[in-house]
Amino acid sequence: MFANDHMGSLVPIHGTDPILGPWNHSAFIPVPLNASAPSLTPKTYLEVANARAAVAALDSLARQLPDPTLLRRIALNREAQSTSALEGTYVPLAEVLVSGDDAPPKSDRREVLNYVRMASFAFSEIQEGRPLTPSLLCDLQSILVTGTKDEGIETGIIRESQVAVGRRSDAPAGALPVHAARFIPAPGGPVLAANVLDLTDWMRSDHAEVLDPIVSAAMAHYQFETLHPFHDGNGRIGRLLIILQMFMHGVLSEPTLTVSPWFEARRVEYYDRLLQVSCDGDWDGFVGFFARGITDSAKLTQREMLELIKVQENMKETVRASRLRADTALQMVDFAVANVSFTVRQASEGLGVSYPRANGLAQQLIELDILAETKLEGSPTRRFYAPQVLRALVP
């Protein structure tokens, strides 16, 4: 399968299965990325240009908002739902959007909510000047698996064990996982750790003079997924890094882009395109596919953002036409857009008002049909959400 030896090398690996006994196989280690552009066709360069324009249009719209951070949490919730679905954890988007930190810790919601916490932490750390390093990646992985079935399995460290990715459709029944896998990434240990360090150094560097940022993001995404540096969470962290890299280099001033829904809808082609880079050096096919995903994702995110802005203004008009005159009522509307689901305590802290005042505002907005009340199964806490916002996000 690995016809292009310029992309990396196969190294022998071995182990012992407790039932089937000793086994031998090979693992793939990709060569480090360099600053030169891969060979791309004119059609792919056009796809890249379209992606760059779509991202610029999305970012321009975000910059026009009075508070560009307003829609960040919504974007993260949508990304969390889709990226977790790609990894086999499906929770309906509407359920994700109205969930909170008080969700039962053993539920599937925990993995989705962990993604939101991880992404929020990542963007906050980068904004505060922390560099992208293996240490930061390890912190992100630790947040992602906390409270899940994978916590404790090499949590928060570059893996030292060997892993196998996926299963081939033609794999015989009863085959060892390592022999049935679609792909065997690099062995764990010092070589893998050094390759991850090379990647984070490369991602921090500015390659704008020789590489379009969309191409840089595609190359870094391939490298991360191929290295597969963690025992669990590589797919979700890798797709977060697409947005984080654009944010880090100023391509996105606010991380509103959501990419996983597009890749989720094309998961088979997505995995095949990644593998073909390793096997055949097909950068052109992967970069073109990746750029189309960024274009479509940016356009969809822009349409959703415009719809949310429209919903936000409609709800404010309802407030202005009522007997409510306090600015805090309008601020509560903004809070309900940014936080699709929230508690009175969260609204009190977010708006800087007393608990009774926040509770009173919530009840008044329920009377105006702006808010509605919900309660999660297994949670005693009342939560509020704006039905118009939910309908805009989940048609």
Characterize this entry briefly.
The protein is mainly α and 395 residues long. It has helices at 42-64, 72-86, 93-98, 109-127, 134-145, 177-180, 190-204, 213-227, 234-248, 260-265, 267-280, 283-320, 327-338, 344-351, 355-367, 387-393, and strands at residues 8-17, 21-30, 341-342, 372-374, 383-385. The relative contact order is 0.15.
General description of the model:
- The protein is mainly α and 395 residues long.
- The chain has two domains: 8-303, Fido-like domain (Fic-like fold), CATH 1.10.3290.10; 322-393, Winged helix-like DNA-binding domain superfamily/Winged helix DNA-binding domain (Arc Repressor Mutant, subunit A, Orthogonal Bundle), CATH 1.10.10.
- The protein is 56% helix and 7% strand.
- It has helices at residues 42-64, 72-86, 93-98, 109-127, 134-145, 177-180, 190-204, 213-227, 234-248, 260-265, 267-280, 283-320, 327-338, 344-351, 355-367, 387-393; strands at residues 8-17, 21-30, 341-342, 372-374, 383-385.
- The strands form two sheets. Strands 3-5-4 form a three-stranded antiparallel sheet. Strands 1-2 form a two-stranded antiparallel ribbon.
- A hairpin with a 3-residue loop joins strand 1 (8-17) and strand 2.
- Helix 1 packs parallel to helix 12.
- The longest helix has 38 residues, at 283-320.
